[in-house]
Predict the structure of 4-hydroxyphenylpyruvate dioxygenase.
Amino acid sequence: MAARVCRLHHVSLHVSNAVRVAGALASRFQFVAVGARVTARSRQLALRKGSAVFVVNERRDTGVTWTEAEENGQGYLYDVRPCYAVDSACNVCFEVEDVTESCARLSDRGCDVLVPPTEVCDPDGGGSVTYSVIRSVVGNVCHTLLDRSRYQDQGGFLPGFQRVGDGTDSEPDSRCPVTHFDHVTFACPRRSTGEVMKWYQENFGFQRFFIGSNEDVDEGYVLNQDGIGLRLTAMEYWKCSEIGLSIPFKDSQTPDCKFVIAESLPEKGQNQVDTFLKQHRGPGIQHIGLSTQNIVSTAETMAQAGVEFFTPPPAYYTEVGKQQEILEAGHHPKELKQHGILLDTDLRNHEDSSTMPNGRYLLQVFTKPLFSEDTFFLELIERRGATGFGEGNIRALWRSVQSYMEKESCEQRLDSEVKTKQTRQH
């Protein structure tokens, strides 16, 4: 292991219109702007909800070359210059204890270092942070390595960003209690899971996390029936506390974020993973799970603000046993159906199962894509003791996304045919 990950700090989006995307995160998803940085060549906006932080980056066209901008400190901070054709979520920032040492070890292992260790000082005397950027083995994904142990956080984002408002979202939000990033899912080409797993295990010490009770060690969690062809494999990073390292951050108790690798199976034809790979122009981050303490209230609040969610087949809520499962967990099928929320009971044995009167379960729902392409979307997830990814829900979630994408494809094809016909008539 070359670098020990302490926690996930933020996720960066590279988009063509940062104001529009940041505005949607704020007005619809209830994130709060905490920092901004605007130069002649870049615009960076940081938004927070609980400990979940998105940094929205936009490359500005102002006549100043990138070389000039970077020489004058007007390029990106904590990231790299984007060279991508579509909007994309493409940087997951990890906090580590020693950026310089981690970067050297990763470089020795053959990793591509895009930004060498760089110190950024707070002009207001709050200390400094050090960061570097490493290229991942997954498509356009990069990882910023960040050490902020010498930075006295006064409520802002990071040195180099201007504080927006009071720099926090410290007020409790009972309507939309999102707390942290639960998981990050990569969409990858077929037969690439082994390579991705190996890269993260060897370079960051990630460990396998089993999604289902019957998951095959080598093959992962496979769905290969009823028109579904999907392979899922999950991994998580070791907690620093487990290996005796102290974490000098006030929010060190933030739950760990897991990583999921999704790939399609060849015999089932085109599907949502393949659609992502095509529209995204390659592998990358397909979706990110937002953990919430109350998914019903969160989904209702976001829906009222304009967020659209995928809806599962109506029969999901009347399936044999599902209605009873929902009721036994203390929920009402009609309430969950209103927002397309799915519930799955964790049937795996747990030592402290007796402390969960309604059993261990989770609830989840997917949003529709954030960008114009059918690529990146978000998931809301509420865990009630369950640690997996809704083994019983995966089929319903798959079908809801697949149905939407097939409808989108059909509408695009019809629009194209109409335009072609109109062109011929003229």
Observations:
- Residues 394-425 form the longest helix (32 residues).
- The longest strand covers residues 5-15.
- The CA atoms of residues 303 and 309 lie 8 Å apart.
- The chain has a mean pLDDT of 85.
